[in-house]
Write a structure and sequence with these properties.
Strand content: 25-35%
Order of helices and strands: EHEEEHEHEHEHEEEEHEH
Number of strands: 12
Helix content: 25-40%
């Protein structure tokens, strides 16, 4: 039985994960942390993570960037693994995550779905075929109107997969509104849409002469992210300190 602290338990993803874990015989949420109390979740909720004294195997984090610093301090002090799903972290926070991973295992992923992580691998192959042939690369992502960060962490992760395969040759361009010039071949455009209750759509376009290839992922519910986070928590609970990602979880299941 994997004992989980749900960090951000009152949020959309926290509630979805809570519902799924309730039906999982191999996992249990033993406590939650959020800015507001909630007595209806079936476990103790703390507004201050430092006051949580539950017996915990792993933390799943779907919170906000404001809560990450205290989360890392708590996890490092108590040697608790963290599945870190919050996106939009600052450069300083990312540095802190890497430093913390020297003490505890941290699995960081901008997107927990099997589909997205498989696409990231496909993009590495696709970019090495299309980019040398002169194809332009654009990424368009769409999410619900409550999402705070833009572009999404997933869009950036997709872009990074391409750029790493191409040895960093691309410059990310997020806004062309003040440019009056032709598109540079070394641009990788990333656009964001925020509207309604879209759970998440990402489209990667390779556009060449008379040819357009689109690789698209649509999340029809948040269950795919919750399922990935729970599997990641089970995977991470007994691992050694270090940085992990969803590719490690997928490899362990093959």
């Amino acid at each position: 039985m994997t004992k989980i602290l749900m960090h951000g338990c009152n949020g959309r993803m926290g509630r979805v994960i809570g519902d799924m874990v309730a039906n999982d015989p191999d996992a249990e949420i033993v406590a939650g942390v959020d800015i507001a109390m909630n007595d209806s979740l079936g476990f103790n909720v703390y507004t201050d993570i430092d006051k949580c004294d539950a017996d915990i195997d792993v933390i799943i984090d779907f919170s906000s960037v404001k809560a990450i610093d205290s989360l890392l301090s708590y996890a490092v002090e108590r040697k608790i693994p963290v599945v870190l799903c919050t996106t939009g972290l600052t450069t300083e926070q990312l540095d802190n995550v890497r430093e913390a991973s020297k003490t505890i295992p941290i699995l960081k992923s901008a997107n927990m779905s099997l589909g997205i992580n498989t696409i990231m691998n496909l993009l590495k192959t696709a970019s090495n075929v299309f980019c040398p042939a002169g194809f332009d690369v654009e990424i368009v992502e769409a999410h619900h109107n409550q999402k705070l960060d833009a572009p999404s962490g997933t869009a950036l992760a997709l872009a990074d997969s391409i750029n790493e395969a191409r040895n960093g040759e691309f410059e990310y361009v997020f806004d062309r509104s003040e440019k009056r010039q032709k598109r540079d071949k070394k641009e990788l455009g990333i656009s964001a849409v925020r509207a309604g209750n879209i759970p998440g759509t990402h489209t990667v376009m390779f556009a060449g002469p008379d040819e357009l290839i689109e690789i698209k992922h649509t999340a029809y519910s948040r269950n795919i992210f919750a399922n990935g986070a729970i599997n990641a928590a089970k995977f991470l609970a007994n691992k050694e300190a270090g940085m992990y990602d969803m590719s490690d979880v997928i490899a362990a299941q093959l």
